Amino acid sequence: MRLAWNEIRARAARFAEEWAGAKYEKGETQSFYNDFFDVFGVKRRKVASFEEPVKKLGGQRGFLDLFWKGVLLVEQKSAGRAASATPRAPRAARSLHHLCGEPSSGKCPPQRSNGRF
């Protein structure tokens, strides 16, 4: 269902108000993103998955919080919680490398020089 811009704006305002005080990342992630996608009239289950397994550099296994192939990669932390020493964007970029191969393969989106997509 395609929504009119005014409807998206109204939904976005309600979403922002409802989630303004949220702090518990682990317990609220799925509800947050389901509500976020609903702002645009998109059913999250049809386009993106939670806890997408990835193989990290060095062979370790990990998970992305949310992954929409070719469109969106999400890695988040709770408010007030210290992130790891590894900056989030480069960490996500390393995970993306394992999902779609070498950037030159044509399967990955272009990467900007600052490490962000």
What does this structure look like?
This protein is of the alpha+beta class and 117 residues long. It is built from 4 helices and 3 strands. The chain folds into 2 domains: 45 residues; 70 residues, no CATH class. Helix 1 packs antiparallel against helix 2.
Number of strands: 3
Distance between the termini: 28 Å
Largest beta-sheet details: 3 strands, antiparallel
- Count of alpha and pi helical runs: 4
Strand content: 15-25%
Question: Low-confidence stretches at least 5 residues in length (pLDDT < 50)?
Answer: 110-117
What overall geometry do the principal axes of the alpha carbons give?
flat
Average pLDDT works out at 75
Q: Order of strands across the biggest sheet?
A: 1-2-3
Tell me roughly what share of residues is in helical segments.
40-55%
| Class by alpha and beta content | alpha+beta
Domain count, please report it.
2
Radius of gyration: 16 Å
Write down the secondary-structure element order.
HHHEEEH
